[in-house]
Amino acid sequence: MITTANIKNGVNVDQLVETINHVQQDPSLAKFEFRAKNNWIDGGHCVTSIQDFYGVGQEHPVRKDNFTMEADHVEVLLGQDQAPNPAEIVLHALGSCLTGAMAYHAAANGIEIEGMESRLNGDVDLHGFLGLDPEVRKGFNGITVKFKVKSDASEEQLRALSQFSPVFDIITNPTPVTIEFEK
Amino acid sequence: MITTANIKNGVNVDQLVETINHVQQDPSLAKFEFRAKNNWIDGGHCVTSIQDFYGVGQEHPVRKDNFTMEADHVEVLLGQDQAPNPAEIVLHALGSCLTGAMAYHAAANGIEIEGMESRLNGDVDLHGFLGLDPEVRKGFNGITVKFKVKSDASEEQLRALSQFSPVFDIITNPTPVTIEFEK
């Protein structure tokens, strides 16, 4: 007997349903911890390594690849522009997360998506970062995401799917960050 | 006459002071817009291109490099693990931004930093993303950053420097995100 995997939008729907069933049977499987290690090079230039994580009840010490990502600043902000800057990296995380969330939740709901692309922009007033005006925030005043989605789904449906994005939640709602300094 | 650039922590302090003076003379120079273009591959696999930005009163259409970054999901979350996932990319953005902000603001304050590294972790309960419990948030419940900084500065000073980080602000405070769907 030949069986065909039930793939929609690049997502294995059978495995997705199985994952949901497992989590419903054992809620502790839903606990994940993601990790990163950042090393300063100089100025605004850094390199981050991504490797291990915890999830579905166990440690995952190795990954397919030892992922490294750099960050730097643009030259007009005194960097050497050797990599995207942290604000641009936030846009990368948000665009990827919204897109992935839509692909997964569309698959779970039987909605086919043929293509997706998005343009993101975020505006900043440097009076905040430079410490020139404490009333001006240091981060983005706002982010706009313009999606082009090739699908029969309505705009309302697509918008509902996008709301499952974890990074959309992290950015639009306050997320506590604890900073510790070790000797 | 030989002049030596005033470099501290990899930051050109003379240029930093000059930048602050320019912004104080013409506040419009402080307006920046960063941009990203995201293309879906399949499932949770995406690629982001970073190129142009607006800042110091003009468009900057080209960069040193045409930066591209990928995102994917880990295999237990039905991805192919070809790149870090969006939640890990948020940790990369935060670690890099805190570190860069500390290097820049330390330089501006005459504080020397010899080395910095940090370990970041963020915990997620998948009941949120999977839509199993509307009371559980989809993003990180919290992020912890553990810094090791080689410097004579006190912990209190380092903490104050870190608070200038734009990504720290984006994550800890609500940042409005507008999503538009175009035909």
TrEMBL record, chains A, B:
Keywords recorded for this protein, A-Z: Oxidoreductase, Peroxidase
Source taxon at top rank: Bacteria
E.C. number: 1.11.1.-
Organism: Flagellimonas iocasae
GO molecular function, one term: peroxidase activity
Stated name of the protein: OsmC family protein
Enzyme class: oxidoreductase
PANTHER family, alphabetized: HYDROPEROXIDE REDUCTASE
Keyword field contains Manganese: no
